[in-house]
Design goal:
Number of helices: 13
Shape: globular
CATH topology of the largest domain: D-amino Acid Aminotransferase, Chain A, domain 1
Number of domains: 4
Bound molecules: adenosine-5'-diphosphate, magnesium ion
CATH architecture of the largest domain: 2-Layer Sandwich
CATH class of the largest domain: Alpha Beta
Strand order of the largest sheet: 11-14-17-22-19
Largest sheet: 5 strands, antiparallel
Structural class: alpha+beta
Helix content: 25-40%
Radius of gyration: 21 Å
């Protein structure tokens, strides 16, 4: 379930399964419509989703976005006996509350930035010992709840925005030490007991080249990251993901689904910035096309305690590069109704997944949101993958198209 390019990539990977699953997607989008049957049910309609899962006789629900997990979709499905890939609300709180996430990390001994949780701006200012400092809304904020304040006036402004004006409805704020380094996304499949790391990835959050401009939902990604091979990923997983699973288990929470660590590779080793509880967007668009193992088997096994015990992952040797095409005005706003051309002209080594798209009047595909499409190409190395991703991205056209030109440049 879900309607973005991440979900489109998941649908692609599931349809590659030799078990030939029948895939239905709620609510999906104009691209997913070409490959799976759609159900017109919103991501926040938990009752509607549960009802549909039962009436459709669904064997496995794969949840894309975080909000329904935080709202208890997995719990509601479990209550009616439908298998769900994605944690219960108690586990999803790792993403739903940054304060809870920090508390679990400290209890589990996972390396993370020093922090304080505060409830009013004056306490926030007092908690700060140096600048820059990072100020984070406690709840879900769609990637907009984090401010890096360079001085006291910026910190005060951010604290008041969050705690007095209640911009995201949060009552608490995490004030945390600023870390330097390169960022890494390391996702792991979890079966309640153990964590199985996926290939490493990096995403690009800022709208403009050179990491300038405001944060977005993600403008591109690539996988794997050359400095984080399978052995290093396993190391990080053992010091980051596994202790968190163990800590949750000790609290009676069996975590099934993706545990996504957003990491900073600091001079003192990797430190966790945050956990998400679902596949990343746009990392998933770059990770899954390289997966040679059967995703369906893996997701199903994750729902069973200890189900991943003997699982091994096989990856294509190529590098995958994903370039996101966004519409005019993104991320402050977005535009819709612009006709998209060139979708049929991309090469066979390229996969285009849809996010903000819709069917226009004459059947044309048109823009319908901020992030419109993800263009993913595989190549023998990052340079080759970049070249083919960008040539496809250039063939696809619509008014106001925005894209970054430097995705995976640092790996090429
Ligand atoms: N302690 C930190 N030091 C430096 N940068 C940070 C820190 N925490 C977060 N950031 C930056 O802010 C971004 C968003 O923070 P994150 O905790 O991932 O929240 P969210 O994804 O929910 O917005 C990170 O990807 C990173 O670029
Ligand atoms: Mg993040």
């Amino acid at each position: 379930m879900g309607g973005g390019a991440r979900e489109h990539a998941i649908v692609h990977a599931l349809l590659r399964s030799p078990r030939r699953p029948e895939v239905t997607c709620a609510p999906g989008n104009a691209g997913i419509a070409g490959e799976a049957r759609l159900l017109d049910i919103d991501a926040d309609d938990i009752d509607g989703l549960v009802r549909a899962a039962r009436s459709e006789g669904v064997d496995l629900v794969v949840v894309g976005p975080e909000a329904p997990l935080v709202a208890g979709l997995a719990d509601a499905l479990a209550a009616v006996g439908v298998r769900c890939f994605g944690p219960t609300a108690a586990g999803a709180a790792l993403e739903g509350s940054k304060a809870f996430c920090k508390e679990v990390m400290v209890a589990a001994g996972v390396p993370t930035a020093a922090y304080r949780v505060v409830e009013d701006p004056a306490d926030g200012i007092e908690a700060i010992s140096s600048y820059p400092v990072v100020i984070k809304a406690d709840g879900l904020a769609a990637g907009k709840g984090v401010v890096i304040a360079r001085d006291e006036s910026e910190a005060r402004e951010a604290l008041e925005d969050l705690l007095v004006r209640r911009r995201f409805g949060t009552e608490r704020v995490v004030v945390e030490e600023h870390l330097d380094g390169e960022e890494l996304s390391l996702l792991a499949l979890c079966d309640g007991r153990s964590a199985l790391p996926l290939a490493s990835a990096q995403d690009y959050k800022r709208i403009f080249d050179g990491d300038r401009g405001p944060n977005t939902g993600g403008m591109g990604s690539y996988s794997p990251v050359p400095s984080v091979d399978a052995a290093r990923a396993a190391d990080i997983c053992a010091t980051v993901h596994q202790p968190v699973l163990d800590e949750l288990a000790a609290r009676g929470i069996s975590f099934h689904g993706v545990l996504y660590a957003g990491l900073m590779l600091t001079p003192d080793g990797p430190k966790v910035l945050e956990f998400n509880v679902r596949f990343g967007d746009p990392e998933t668009q770059a990770i899954l096309p390289r997966l040679r193992s059967d995703l369906l088997d893996l997701l199903e096994a994750s729902t069973i305690p200890g189900g991943l015990e003997n699982a091994e992952l096989e990856w294509a040797l190529e590098t995958a590069v994903t370039v996101v095409l966004a519409s005019r005005g993104y991320p402050e706003s977005s535009s819709s109704g612009d006709v998209i051309t060139g979708l049929d002209e991309v090469g066979p080594d390229v996969s285009v997944t849809h996010a903000g798209t819709a069917r226009g009047d004459a059947g044309a595909v048109v823009t319908a949101g901020g992030r419109v499409l993800s263009v993913t190409a595989l190549g023998t190395d990052a340079a080759a993958a970049r070249a083919s991703a960008y040539s496809a991205a250039d063939v696809i056209a619509f008014d106001g198209k925005q894209l970054r030109r430097d995705i995976a440049q640092r790996a090429a």
